[in-house]
Amino acid sequence: MQRLTVSLRGGFEKRKACLVFYFTGQLDAYSEKQFTDFVDEVLKANDLSVVIDLSKIDFIDSSGLGAMVHIAKDCNKQKRSFLVVGNPRVKQTIKLVRLEEFLHLVEDLDSALGQLTA
After folding, report:
1. 8: alpha, beta or left? (left if phi > 0; alpha if psi -120 to 50)
2. Which of 12, 39, 51, 110 is exposed most, by the fewest CB atoms within 10 A?
């Protein structure tokens, strides 16, 4: 994992013909630009399906949700499959603003990989 900001670390790996992004820390107004830039840069170099694993994110705010929406829209334009995995706190935040269907929120990483490789 590389440090994207003081409060956010991220990385990615290719698994089962998918790109799996991992993040820890806080996805908020202070880190959303670096988060978006990092994901966009990796997506430009690959055409695989995408899983964003937020299960180790401590906090996500409206700016973080906006960054997720931006990435989901880009994936939709590219006709690229896109799923999000979150911990209970992240899931609650996503569901609170009714984005669970748009962001394709799934229960866990194994479920996400199963959906994309089935």
Report:
1. beta
2. 110
Q: What is the pLDDT of residues 64-86, one digit of tens each?
A: 999 999 999 999 999 999 999 99
Q: What is the DSSP string of 88-118?
A: HHHHHHHHHTT-TTTTTEES-HHHHHHHHH-
45 burial (CB, 10 Å; 0-12 / 13-18 / 19+) is: exposed
Q: Total domain count for the chain?
A: 1
Query: Model-level pTM greater than 0.70?
Result: yes
Residue 80 belongs to domain with CATH number: 3.30.750.24
DSSP secondary structure string for all residues of 5-37: SSSEEEEEEEETTEEEEEEEEEESTTTHHHHHH
Per-residue DSSP letter, 87: -
pLDDT in tens, 41-52: 999 998 999 999
**What range does the domain containing 19 cover?**
2-117
Task: Tell me how crowded residue 77 is: count the other CB atoms within 10 A of its CB.
Answer: 8
Query: How far apart, in whole angstroms, are the C-alpha atoms of residue 104 and residue 81?
Result: 9
